[in-house]
Specification:
about 140 residues, single chain, four-stranded antiparallel beta sheet
Amino acid sequence: MKQFSTLLLLLFTTQLFAQVQVMGVITDEEKRPLEMANVFAVNAKTKAVASFGTTDSKGRYRLNLKKNTDYILKASFVGMETFERQISLKEANINVPIVLKSGNKLDEVNIVRKMPVSVKGDTLVYNADRCFKEITRRGS
């Protein structure tokens, strides 16, 4: 049992040291940090997501990835263009600052005065006429 524990500990520490950290700060064009921006790394060969995370209140992120591997680093934030860049990891941690440009505008929002669905107790009531009018008005 003692040998098994030692072997397990050795494998765990070997796996721990076989990783590199990719870190940085995500900002907008005016150099303001973006909190809760999404960042993830996709293995360039297998196209599988290797690591993901969100930024903290100062726009900082940190991803743990395997050494000697190529990744596509992607970052996104609501109302901003998606950032994408290929990185090749070697033996050392790297710092990749990201600047997101504004650009993704949201479409118009339609406000409906009377919802076509209402809840009465534990029953959903559908106003079929209202649903039909909404569909035909949108051209579907």
